[in-house]
Specification:
about 400 residues, alpha+beta, FAD/NAD(P)-binding domain, Helicase, Ruva Protein, domain 3, 2 domains, seven-stranded antiparallel beta sheet, five-stranded parallel beta sheet, 13 helices
Length: about 400
């Protein structure tokens, strides 16, 4: 007998779950229900339109450290389907991936459309149905059959349901899952940039310092890596990683805090002083503005010199005592006031969602409602930037789709 499977959500996890389920149970009738008029929207915009498919980090112990929430719980999941499996899966579909120096992996075409075409091609080949503008607002279990209320799109009946509805910063978006008995961990933004409306450094928009170390004053939050100065404040991997691990803390501070930056990464004040003093001794007659002893971009160096109260036309022989102390301090202990955050529109990530306590992570099946599975960001799992969120989507989608297919076969 044919069995019906409804996948709620047309994103990366939804497509992967639907494809896996159909591949392993060809007799099943699988439908993807997407609330908007577009599928794979995040795949399209990820990585500036290139799609950061996954990461080159294959060691599971190292991999799970990139997930502020859910990492340790995903250890066994990644042993079932990890980054290497993702690379092989797309390769089998004719898509080769390449690794960038920072470990991110993209299609060799540098186009997210390559990934979309691969997934869409497999969906069409398998005969999976896609229904757009179908917003599921309620699920009712009648005996062994689920009834999904899709509003104007009507009622859908299914023997199994895989929820891949994605994340949301609003608790109300999870109300229909709460009604089924699931516990929802309060959602808040996870990957976001820092707004600095009162800081002059925004005039340097486009400048990248790499690497730097950053921390949030008054907390234990710290991270490192490239930092991008924008017209609204600061972004880049160093900031995004900080925002991910500090998601709930920064939310509790109402996004008003001070960011401390060591522009020379892990160099100590003593080390920097020796370096600058050596430069001063070697080039006493050179102007400070033209004599940059660091590898910082020129515009940033001139900004920091001015912030230390030093004229760029001053000669190095004149920089000693208090001026030297101020310069050293700005280089290793610079600070800026952040007031607010900016998310990446369709790329935003939230922490929170369905509690992992309610899910059997061996199968992704709900412990509360048999026959119901979860995958992707709807779960209380989120990673830092670098392909980790997509990997979680592929992993949980694969496990959920496979387990769903196995239950139908039984």
């Amino acid at each position: 007998m044919s069995k019906n499977v409804a996948v709620v959500g047309g994103g990366a996890a939804g497509f992967f779950a639907a494809i896996t389920c159909k591949q392993q149970c060809p007799k099943a009738s699988v439908i993807i229900l997407e609330k908007s008029d577009k599928v794979l929207a995040k795949v399209k915009v990820s990585g500036g339109g290139r799609c950061n498919v996954t990461t080159s980090v294959t060691d599971i112990s190292a991999l799970i450290t990139n997930y502020p929430r859910g990492g340790k719980r995903l250890r066994k999941c990644f042993s079932q389907f990890g980054p290497s499996d993702t690379v092989k899966w797309f390769a089998a579909g004719g898509v080769r991936l390449k690794t960038e120096p920072d470990g991110r992996m993209f299609p060799v075409t540098d186009s997210s459309q390559t990934i979309i075409d691969c997934l869409m091609g497999e969906v069409h080949r398998l005969g999976i149905i896609i229904r757009k503008q179908a917003t599921v607002s309620r699920i009712i279990l009648n005996e062994n059959e689920f009834e999904l209320n899709c509003g104007n799109a009507g009622l859908v009946r299914a023997d199994r349901v895989i929820i891949t509805a994605g994340g949301s910063p609003k608790t109300d978006a999870y109300r229909w899952l709460e009604e089924l008995g699931h516990t929802i961990e309060s959602p808040v933004s996870s990957l976001f940039t820092f707004n600095m409306p009162d800081e002059d450094i925004t005039a340097l928009m486009g400048v990248v310092a790499d690497p730097v170390s950053v921390r949030i004053q008054g907390t234990k939050l710290q991270s490192g890596g490239p930092l991008l100065i924008t017209h609204w404040g600061m972004s880049g991997p160093a900031i995004l990683k900080l925002s991910a691990f500090g998601a709930r803390i920064l939310n509790g501070m109402d996004y008003a805090f001070r960011v401390q930056v060591n522009w020379l990464n892990d160099l100590t004040e003593e080390h920097v002083r020796l370096m600058v003093e050596a430069h001063r001794t070697a080039h006493p007659e050179k102007q400070v503005g033209n004599g940059n002893p660091t590898k910082l971009p020129s515009r940033l160096w001139l900004f920091l010199v001015a912030k230390a109260g030093i004229s760029e036309t001053s000669r190095w022989s004149d920089i000693q005592g208090r001026p030297m102390n101020r310069l050293i301090n700005v280089l290793v202990n610079d600070a800026y006031a952040a007031k607010g955050k900016t998310t990446f529109k369709e790329e935003f990530v939230t922490c929170g969602g369905v509690s992992l306590e309610d899910v059997n992570l061996e199968t992704m099946e709900s412990r509360v409602c048999r026959g119901l599975y979860f995958a992707g960001e709807v779960l209380d799992v989120d990673g830092i930037t670098g392909g980790f969120n997509f990997q979680a989507a592929w992993t949980t989608g694969f496990i959920g789709g496979r387990a769903c297919a196995a239950s139908l076969s039984e």
